[in-house]
Amino acid sequence: MADGDRAEAASAESELEPLRFQRLWGEGYFEVPASERLGKCRSVKEFEKLNRIGEGTYGIVYRARDTVTDETVALKKVRMDNEKEGMPVSSLREITLLLELQHPNIVELKEVVVGNHLESIFLVMGYCEQDLASLLENMQTPFSEAQVKCIILQVLKGLQYLHERYIIHRDLKVSNLLMTDKGCVKIADFGLARTYGMPPQPMTPKVVTLWYRAPELLLGVTTQTTSIDMWAVGCILAELLAHKPLLPGTSEIHQIDLIVQLLGTPNENIWPGFSKLPLVSQYTLRKQPYNNLKHKFPWLSEAGLRLLNFLFMYDPKKRATAKDSLDSSYFKEKPLRKYIPHQPGLQCLASADLSLCLPSLRARAHAHLPPPSQQACSQHQHGDRDPGKACQALSPVQKEEVQELKQGWPLPGLGTGSCPAAGQARSSPR
């Protein structure tokens, strides 16, 4: 924080006066001391703003340092520009939900702090170095399939935790998936998240960014379940595999048309109740009888295509759940070395920080975690660290695992069977 900002903040605090309230019973007033005006929340003055890292619909985000703990955090200022009656409902929902959630794949809300005025509110959150959208735009080498599996596995674990607690995120997309420098993925931005019950109550259908919006939302369904998050997961998985958005619609009509081009035209046989959806009569869908996922991803294994098809089921009741997806055999088969010509960061594995999300390199390899941090890679490439010395610090088992990773994976057999159609009866996405 600049000296001018500190002086201004100190001046503003010194100008605070005790609050006076008239007594409900009896005569006179009582006072709330100036030191207690902001309650038990810490002041934002205890954080040093380092730089601005983003801005969303509901607030501005800064990278900051907690001057008490010396920890780097993300400081999200709640936007109140258009609010006449206090904090936005979206921010209240986000705070309420995140204070109750504790999972390694969900962004952590550490505390709520206040500025010099009651309407100046900040959320202190765990700091993540990147979001997937920025990585996809700026990385020189696309994610390998093994790394994609790692990312999606972590997203699914976070979603399973949410869905078991009857929480729908309702805005999953690559820009709302954060990644730490150790490869841990965290679901963020809960401004649109809602809890739901049984039977589901009507909600606004205009949720989820257009490219990731499920067909039932596009066709006006108001009773939402966790299936809308799972459709978004399918879009994210496909985007990471293809290195570009799968369904980049420019309008709701265009979005529906792209879905039909990819999966075929829905009907009552594959989606019971389809003809009675609120907005079906407003669209004339093209006649397209084929599922083109296999054509879109000709190199993807049979298990991978099967998982995508179950995530893209038209009927929300048949769509794969987070648990179904975690059990998919796609995550159990080895990465297809044929389609991974090189793995970024692998060459510096020996010199990287080994305190990753999983306890051993073997677990990391088979779970397909992303490579070590770019910083570690850069240091090794520029000779700042000696990989030989780093390897000496590893146990014999870890050294063996490093060599195993460097040698690559054996080629698994490729299945030749056709993938199920989008409307095929659901049994299991395995």
From TrEMBL:
PROSITE patterns attached to this UniProt entry: PROTEIN_KINASE_ATP, PROTEIN_KINASE_DOM, PROTEIN_KINASE_ST
InterPro entries listed in its UniProt record: CDK, Kinase-like_dom_sf, Prot_kinase_dom, Protein_kinase_ATP_BS, Ser/Thr_kinase_AS, STKc_CDK10
Keywords: ATP-binding, Cell projection, Cilium biogenesis/degradation, Cytoplasm, Cytoskeleton, Kinase, Nucleotide-binding, Phosphoprotein, Serine/threonine-protein kinase, Transferase
Matches recorded under SUPFAM superfamilies: Protein kinase-like (PK-like)
A GO-annotated cellular component: nucleus
A GO term for molecular function: cyclin-dependent protein serine/threonine kinase activity
Oligomeric and partner information: Heterodimer with CCNQ, the interaction is required for kinase activity. Interacts with ETS2. Interacts with PRK2.
UniProt-listed PANTHER family: CELL DIVISION PROTEIN KINASE, CYCLIN-DEPENDENT KINASE 10
Role: Cyclin-dependent kinase that phosphorylates the transcription factor ETS2 (in vitro) and positively controls its proteasomal degradation (in cells). Involved in the regulation of actin cytoskeleton organization through the phosphorylation of actin dynamics regulators such as PKN2. Is a negative regulator of ciliogenesis through phosphorylation of PKN2 and promotion of RhoA signaling.
The protein's name in its UniProt record: Cyclin-dependent kinase 10
Gene name linked to the record: CDK10
